[in-house]
Amino acid sequence: MSKTVLITGATAGFGKAMAERYASEGWNLILTGRRKEKLKELQQALAPTPVHIAAFDVSDKQACFDAVAQLPDSFKTVDVLVNNAGLALGLDPAQSCDLNDWETMIDTNIKGLMYMTRALLPSMVEQDKGHIVNLGSVAGTYPYPGGNCYGGTKAFVNHFSKNLLADLLGTRIRVTNIEPGLCESEFSVVRFKGDKNAADKVYQGTQPIKPEDIAEIVYWTTTLPAHININSLEVMPVDQAFSPFAINRK
User: Fold this and answer.
1) Where are the domains of the chain?
2) N or C: which end of the chain has fewer CB within 10 A?
3) Residues β-bridged to residue 135
4) How far is CA 182 from its chain centroid?
5) 49 touches 23 (CB < 8 A)
6) 174: helix, coil or strand?
7) What are 163-172's pLDDT values in tens digits?
8) How far apart, in Å, do the first and last CA atoms of the chain sit?
9) Is 150 an annotated catalytic residue?
C-alpha cells in the first residue's frame, strides 16, 4: 500500500522538490500552498501520481483544520507531515525593521507549523504511526545581524520539535527538525520582497545547497527503519561556516 505525505509550502523551492522526490517513489501526495494555480500545475506535472491539492495560508488556523478535516478518504491516513511553509522578511536591524514583517514570520513559521501539527497529530497518535518533519534553519542556532525575528522563529521550531518528541514518547511517531544553511531558492527573493538582484548577491561566488538536496535529506529521514529517529539534522554547503565573535572596538 502506498504511503501518503502532506507537504506545506509546496508551490516552489523545497516543497516542490520534495513533492517530486516522493512522487518518484510512488507516494500519494497532499500538497498545500497559497498559490492555487501553481499547485494545479504541479499536480498535472506529477500525473499519474495521486495528488490532492489544497490552497490556503497556514497562518489561517481555521483553514488548516478545515483542510485536514476535508481530506478525501483515500488521503486521510497521513504517514508523513512536512511542515515546510515558512519565510524570512528583511534584514533590517531590530530597532528599524518593519514590525508587520515580524508578525508575518511569527504567523507563518510558528503558528502555521503549530496549526498543521495539531490538526494531524491526534490521528497519528490514534493509528500509532507517523512522522513530522519540521523545516528549521541554522539561523535558529547561530545569530547574525538582521536575523532577529526570523532566527527566533526557527529557534522555536527547534525546541518545539524536541518537546513533541517528549510528549510522544511511547508512541511510534517520529519527529525530525531539518536545519539548512545557505540554500538557493525563492527564499531570498521573498526575503528581499521581489528584488532578485539583491537575492542573487546572497549566492554570488558560492555553491549553495539546492532544493533537491534538502528533498533528498527529508526523504531519507522518513524512510529509515521505523525504530530510528533523526532528532535534528543541520546541513550547510561546504562554502559556509561559522562567523567569529563580533567585537565593537572604540
Assistant:
1) 4-182+212-232
2) C
3) 178
4) 15
5) yes
6) strand
7) 999 999 999 9
8) 67
9) yes
